[in-house]
Amino acid sequence: MRRISRITVAGAATASLALALSACGSTSTSGSSESKGNKGLAIAYDVGGKGDQSFNDAAYAGLEKAQKEFGYETADLEPTEGETDADKEQRLVSLAKQGYNPVIGVGYAYASAVKGAAEKFPDTTFGIVDDATINTKNVADLVFNEEQASYLAGVAAAKSTKSKVVGFVGGVDIPLIHKFQAGFAQGVKDTDPKVKVLSQYLTQTAEEGGFASPDKGKTAAEGQIEKKADVVYAAAGLSGQGVIEAAAAKKVWAIGVDSDQYKQEALAKYKDSILTSAMKDVAKAVYSLAKSVEDGKPETGIVRGDLKTGEVSLSDSNPKFADDAELQEAIKTAKEKIISGEIKVKSS
Question: What residue stretch is flagged as signal peptide (predicted)?
Fold first, then answer.
């Protein structure tokens, strides 16, 4: 366990960090430890930033749990518009210089930055969410079998549609989001081959706003609903809020992603239209890496979450979803077959 300073210097520590990182994106800190090496978990957000009600907010929930349990100082930094890989790396380097450990880049876009920062600070543990390409001894690649939860979302969609048309809206046309689409489409078709799946990606690159544009998500969902889709699944970060808004306005089902979006305050007025969410427990992955460092046994290499570990799943917060016995039985059966290997879920 790292020794935690009990001297109350929060104001000075926060001011110092804010000054040091002013060129690297906005930040918030909590805790009271000032000494280098005594600071704990720091995260740098992906596109969309804190408040996306999805991917980034899940990472922040993991940070909050670590801060509460270990009583140390934490930091979380926002991305800046049009930033380069060098900007991202400098953000991570600044955190490591301040003594934060571990330091996590939230999202595949941090791959180059994490690799570079980890090489500069070999005694600091780094993590990256949603990338498995870094082969550095002090980096944990926190990845998930998103296609498995998406398959179950496909089962739910096929069982819930009345029009026999469902939709998928992906934020950016990249391999990571292809996993969501592939699993969803397979789950739909395996459940009911007669159901048509409409698929659309909002942008070709993240820089074009595919993960951060609710208006783009809303327009895409409205187009699919006009083509008779009555269940729409979004894997689009902040853009997914627009998909959910469109579904609520047209009185069809939306399926959320990453976090349990039925419970998100910002989406409360739409929650009755959120059938379920295909979740991946980014919060648990972030917290677990922090705990491994705190315990003196840092996780490294590929750390994968799937249905078997419980780190991908479907939410059951909506009573209409949870109380549908036929639907729940179909999902349970599919889940068991995926875990046993009887069903091989496609990732592309």
Answer: 1-20
